[in-house]
Amino acid sequence: MAAPADVKLAYLADHAAFLREDVGPKFVRVIREAAIASFAARGFPTLKDEDWKYTNVSSLARQTFRRSGRVTGVSRESLAPFALPEAIELVFVNGHLEPSLGSRHPVLEGIEVGSLMAAADEEPEEVQKQLGKHASFAQHPFVALNTAFWHDGAYLHVPANEVLERPLHLLFLSAPGGEPTVSHPRNLLVLEPQSQATVIETYAGIGEDPSFTNAVTEVVVGEGAHLERYKVQRETERAHHLGTTQYVQGRDAQITDHSVSFGGALVRSDVNAAFAAQGGSLTLNGLFSAGGGQFVDNHTKIDHAHPHGTSAELYKGILDGRARGVFHGNVLVRAGAAKTNARQTNRNILLSTEARMDSIPGLEIHHNDVKCTHGSSIGRVDEQAVFYLRSRGIDEVTAKSLLVFAFTSELLAAMKVTAVRDRVARLLMERLPNAEGIREVQ
Amino acid sequence: MLEIRGLRARVGDLEILKGVDLTVHAGEVHAIMGPNGSGKSTLAGVLAGRPTYEVIGGNVLYDGKDLLAMRPEVRAREGVFLAFQYPVEIPGVSNAYFLKSALNSIRRHRGESELDSADFVTWVEAKRNLLGLDDAVMRRGVNEGFSGGEKKRNEIFQMAVLEPRLAILDETDSGLDIDALRVVADGVNAMRSPARAILVITHYQRLLNHIVPDRVHVLSGGRIVRSGDKALALELEQKGYAGLGAAGA
Fold first, then answer.
1. Between chains, do A437 and B93 touch, taking CB under 8 Å as contact?
2. Is A46 exposed, middle or buried (0-12, 13-18, 19+ CB in 10 A)?
3. Out of B90, B94, B106, whose CB is closest to A393?
């Protein structure tokens, strides 16, 4: 274990080396330098920072993760548990795009799907308009590291009035090889006005070694556009995952975000959304399940800056073993954001006496003519319901698993991509005893 | 079928059942009446195995077996059914899934083959219609957003599907209007059979006009203080529990 100051210096030194490599066109380099300067000034967050009060990142700040290189030997067969063959699929292994592993369905002419680094080289103006403009590296040290070090990620551009016919699946695989490695996936999704797309990000891992994935996705949803997005984090027990999603929502745009996390050594997810014009509807659904000594932290920020915006947020957590969970939600309704309708809910079930959850919902309202509610609960499996099920012949273990699974059902039901929903459902069941008895619950 | 001997039970430090004796034979319908707080629901809960209650004395034989030694789910599989006074809402679990799981766990216990979805639909359809529940109710969460009457009808529907040998109805009539009461009573009467015993727990005589009992017992202060035939229910209606010397009336 090293001192955080030394690890910080190692990142700074590595960045100087990184910049000597082929790391993108000039505008990208300029952003990288600004970002590393921001990280140099601020360093790793500590528990004294309000946004990091419950998130102990010392396992990241005291350990050097080497930038992960390309690995060979990952086969399409080994990706089968994570792949979505019916989707347009881009596969990144340790942050490097591996075109041979993806399943590429044709897309309509005009829709761009591919490597962000390639897009930055080929269409610098389009990318420059958005890259780094939304996810603030000044506010978030790990966004700063990502912005400084990102190697690749996905770029999606859907022109006005176009529809991406198939879901786009971005699969990020961590395959650490013998030493702790880090990758910094960076995605940019741009939906022009009145366009529509479904995007799934899966973060998965193989192997036993510790890994660190530090991902940032910037999403620009234009006027009247529709986006359905999934992020499924299902890395290994020894994975560290820091992830930030930043939405910018145009007038009357519709965004549904499903954030699913199955935990890791340290998982911190930030989902931020800013209403950039009036109207629009934002749904943030979150589902996390952690056991053993896992840690999962979900931060969300919704910024209602314009009138007539609607946001509905529902996060649910299941914590077993000695797992710890955090929900920290913030809804800001700015002066002038009249007729805002915001609902924020966080519900949690603790399955063991040692599991712990900190839930901090928050509303900050600066306009009178709005409708805002929030609620939070931390409880155990309802014993009345357990007895009701037992009284009908269902054994106690199955009854409890059934109730925990049922707790997630409204979030699963909201997932329109059935292949993702079924996979998330199966992962949930795998964590519950006697789960073979609880299929077809709905 | 059911022999209760000197049954005593408590919740925390409060002793509620203070020595209940009751014998019910197959084919019989027994009514247990009594004022609020007399121990009616406790008796129902103890028989079904509700963990809130601690049995501190006596014993219960069900078909000659020690009922109190069985886990609640085993009692259910052995044919004991409790219609809840307050059925529990379970959002996210459909009525169909719930009932099919319950039925199949009972069938497995009996060594019978499990029903698949198609067989299950056939199995429940006539029973569902009898209780006046439409098909949509099967897809809804268990009791989720049900009216009081729907919840009670759903209990009797479950009883019809699971075909228990000993059915205990805990104040199934409370809160029902006369139409719902008739539907529930018809459902129960359709279940009467020489192989089945039914224990009807109620605060009101009204239900017993529709489900005519073979025996009526008055529970008061944690003991059965009087037993008789159906005329006892009418006497109670006229005199009230106080007129029968029941405490707490």
1. no
2. middle
3. B106
- ipTM score of complex: 0.95
Chain B touched by A403 (CB under 8 Å): yes
Residue B248 lies in a domain: no
Chain B, window 210-249: residues with a beta carbon less than 8 angstroms from a chain A beta carbon: none
Say if the Cβ atoms of B92 and A406 lie within 8 Å.
yes
Nearest-neighbour CA in chain B from A383: distance (Å): 9
Strands (DSSP E) contained in A192-279 are 196-205, 211-221, 226-234, 239-249, 254-261, 266-275
Q: Identify all chain A residues contacting B106, using CB atoms and an 8 Å cutoff.
A: 393
- Residue carrying structure tokens 């741009």: A190
In whole angstroms, what is the distance from residue A50 CA to residue B87 CA?
45
CATH code of residue B191: 3.40.50.300
Taking only residues 117 to 136 of chain B, the set having a beta carbon closer than 8 angstroms to any beta carbon of chain A reads none
Is B216 inside any structural domain? yes
* Closest to B52 measured CA to CA, from B85, B84, B11: B11
Read off the pLDDT of residues A370-414 as tens digits, 9 standing for 90 and up: 999 999 999 999 999 999 999 999 999 999 999 999 999 999 999
Decide if B249 is inside a domain.
no
Residue B181's domain spans which residues? 2-243
pLDDT in tens, A327-385: 999 999 999 999 999 999 999 999 999 999 999 999 999 999 999 999 999 999 999 99
Residues of A in contact with B76 (CB under 8 A): 390-393
Return the residue matching tokens 């900050």. Answer: A364
Confidence at B22, pLDDT banded by 50, 70, 90: very high
Does residue B90 belong to the interface with chain A, where contact is any CB pair within 8 Å? yes
What pLDDT digit, counting tens, does each position of A142-173 carry? 999 999 999 999 999 999 999 999 999 999 99
As for how many domains chain B has, the answer is 1
